[in-house]
């Protein structure tokens, strides 16, 4: 799929103030610093579209980007950034959970996992919560450029194995790098396939 246009539309903390209408949207979630905003820039080929930072906690709001004038990418704040303090983390958690549970236009949630890490409790708990709430999601392993092939494979297999302990069937997963654009075509064509099943797209 070609990305012919990508425009920032609105940022807010309140799901009720997100854009109205019925364009489908694809949101990105994961721990702070896992690479959500960078991935949105990589997918859209626009470097400064979503704000990124080497310091965790950069994205604080729900950000809507209108793509090709008929669907949205949504950048969400990350969870689990300890320096925010408990109260700050709770506020972010509420923003994220309310968006996920209430936003009817959210067609698929991409859960980003850092491919360099062993399975993390915070991510496993979050995925468990998605399952309990019947949220449609898929998985993206990020920062694959930081690992050698063998190690990458080993880490991903270990993650999938851990997930299989809780889930009989796993959702689709992708491997990405915003550095060298790995995964771009696969993720965009996955979105395109879903869009095609939606009336008028
Ligand atoms: P929050 O908004 O704080 O939740 O973080 P985020 O998940 O949006 O992460 P962001 O995209 O801001 O990236 C965090 C850091 O990781 C930045 O320094 C990025 O340059 C770096 N980064 C993101 N993706 C990749 C990647 O695929 N490869 C490499 N090498 N670095 C990456
Ligand atoms: Mg961000």
Key features of this structure:
201 residues; alpha/beta; Rossmann fold; binds guanosine-5'-triphosphate
Number of distinct beta strands:
7
The tally of structural domains comes to 1
Radius of gyration: 16 Å
In percent, how much strand structure appears in the residues?
15-25%
Q: Which geometry do the CA atoms define?
A: globular
Through-space gap between termini: 13 Å
- Given the structure, what is the number of helices? 5
The assembly state of the depicted protein chains is single chain
- In spatial order, strands of the major sheet run 1-3-4-2-5-6-7
The distinct ligands, each listed once, are: guanosine-5'-triphosphate, magnesium ion
- SSE-based structural type: alpha/beta
Order of helices and strands: EEHEEHEHEHEH
Could you characterize what this model shows?
With 201 residues, this protein is an alpha/beta fold. The protein has one domain: 3-Layer(aba) Sandwich (Rossmann fold), CATH 3.40.50.300. 34% of the residues lie in helices and 21% in strands. The chain is built from 5 helices and 7 strands. It has helices at 36-44, 85-102, 121-132, 149-164, 184-197; strands spanning 6-12, 25-30, 62-67, 71-75, 106-114, 137-142, 173-175. A 7-stranded mixed beta sheet has the order 1-3-4-2-5-6-7, sandwiched between helices. A hairpin with a 3-residue loop joins strand 3 and strand 4 (71-75). The longest helix is centred in the middle third of the chain and has 18 residues, at 85-102. The chain is globular and about 40 Å long. The structure holds guanosine-5'-triphosphate (GTP) and magnesium ion. Residues 36-37, 58-59, 75 line the site of magnesium ion.
